[in-house]
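Help wanted!
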Amino acid sequence: MNGLRTTVGRSVRVITAFWSANVAEEAQYRANFVVSVLGTLFWLAMALLTLAIFFGQTDRLGGWSFWEVVVLLGVFNALGGIVETLLRPSVGRLAEYVRTGSLDLVLTRPIDPQFYVSFRRINVWRAADIVLGFALAGFALIRLGIGDWGIRIASFLLLFAAAAVMLYALWISLMCLAFWFVDVANLAVVFDAVFEAARYPASAYPGALRFLFLYLVPIVWTTTIPASALTGQLRPPVGILAVLTAAAALVVARGIWRVALRRYTSAGG
Amino acid sequence: MTDSPPTSVRPRWIARYAALVRAGWLVDLQYRAAVSIWLLWGLIDPLISLGIWWSIAAGGSIEGYDRPAFARYFFAVILVNQLTLAWDAFYIDNWIRGGEMNHRLARPISPIHEAVADNIAYKLRTAGTVIMLWLLAAAVWEPVRIPIEPARWALAAIATLFAAAIRFLNGYATGLLAFWTTRATAIMETQYGISLFLSGRIAPLSLLPPAVVSVAGVLWFPYMLAFPVEILTGAITGVDAYARGFAWQVFWLTAWFGAYRVVWSRGLRHYGAVGG
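Answered by r_m:
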């Protein structure tokens, strides 16, 4: 127990050191913050216009009303912010570490390599996407005018965290392919393409696509489930299942990482 | 080149282009995985839009588009988009900021020829795959099929060629703005955002508000994608509509070529001034 506490304590100290160095570095480029926020606002506007076009022809999308889909869009933007802030700058570099051999340096450090690779860098300005996403979702919820905020927000935060964990597991598994195929710098692009599907509710897709985005690549539920916790359409068993799935995905990702790493060291020795 | 008789200029250019296209083809060959990943991107976005319209059109037809018409439309988008795709803006921005432009300028041939050749190679490589995917889809799924009318197909092919040229020059000229600004790629992405609507990526143009459609009609966006797509699906027919569309394509091709010439010559002077 004591050992665990030291490990956790040390990990927190290490992350704090990494990230504060990172923030200090990024603070030199404050114009990037403005540009990043303007970019996010532009794409949110494009997404809202797209919804306006869809809802010009219908008043329900897979059973979701306009403002409910806007809640989902906010959640999508916030999750995208997690990807850009945390995942892409850190896990996204794994392929580069493997290709250039700088993973060797990571392995010699007195710290769990997966931990190091996962949290080394953040892109702090993109955290604005998370804030803007939550703000949009909040605005849409006010337009929907619904009560019992406490339980909705609590369950939303839990499921949002589960979705973030799920995305992390997907990223690390995807990036581990770099240990087998060296030219996978573009794998992040596969994720980006498929993640686009998560901007609409799962129920809006016809059978074949739903199968693809919901089961084959479990991407759409990462936004649909937290968003439906906010709009009050979530059935509790689905929520519990989502949390368990995220936990399982984390364990599987850890397994994939271990297998991949064994392959790497064996190639070196 | 100056001392050679004019008759030999043409074959020499053909030989140069053949060599450049071959080089581009071989480079792509090394990045087969990357090329197929980009293909995947080109598939998923139109499929998402199709999925959403498919569920909206459950009740019947929307502005003349029923479910099969949407399927036909978005599969044509996949095809034409792949054949007109151009990434040059992102490369050029990188080259100018990273300094790689310098050794490209030192070559005895203007960088744009290399870019044109790379685009031809990339399109030759991906065209086969995307046409095959499209034929496969048409074989198993009736809505995707397009009636066999050679004249229409030929017109669509010509319009696609123009669209590819406009999109290439548009991207190339925009990328060259990196001579002045570090945000050239942001300008490119903004144009992409606008093209979601005005090029007909999210929805066929006729489903947009009429005011938007008339603004789109005088800009370059629909002529980079929607126009050839709608010839292919049969949404655009009649000599008048064809003539108007091709006239606009010629206009925007000329305009973007002019823009490229201006940006290139001024940009080089600006770049040289900084370097010297």
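OP: Thanks! One thing I noticed: Chain A touches chain B at residues 35, 39, 42-43, 46, 49-50, 53-54, 56-58, 61-62, 181, 183-187, 189-190, 192-194, 196-197, 200, 204-206, 209 (CB under 8 Å).
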